[in-house]
Design brief:
single chain; alpha+beta; binds zinc ion; Preprotein translocase subunit YajC; PP0621-like
Length: 82
């Protein structure tokens, strides 16, 4: 009877270890939450706002956040802030 109990406990331990290993492996296979992709930003030469490069208005003199600032900068000519 004592040996049977011992074998039962041994089998129970093996099941526990197998289950823990199985669950642990499942955890590592979980997909990590994706971090948002880094977006390159450009600084507006007129107001200093940083805008995504694909949304920025690019001119020969530099990059701007919007068409209004592009025309404003061209009409002013020299940036008074700098
Ligand atoms: Zn701007």
């Amino acid at each position: 009877m004592g040996l049977r109990t011992l074998l039962f406990l041994f089998a129970l331990g093996l099941v526990y270890l197998a289950l823990r290993n199985y669950l642990g492996r499942g955890k590592t296979l979980d997909k990590q939450p994706r971090t948002p992709a880094f977006r390159k930003t450009l600084r507006c030469d007129h107001c200093g706002t940083h805008v995504p490069s694909e949304e920025a208005v690019k001119t020969a003199s530099g990059s701007l956040c919007c068409p209004e600032h592009a025309t404003a900068k061209e009409s002013v000519g020299v940036d008074p802030d700098d």
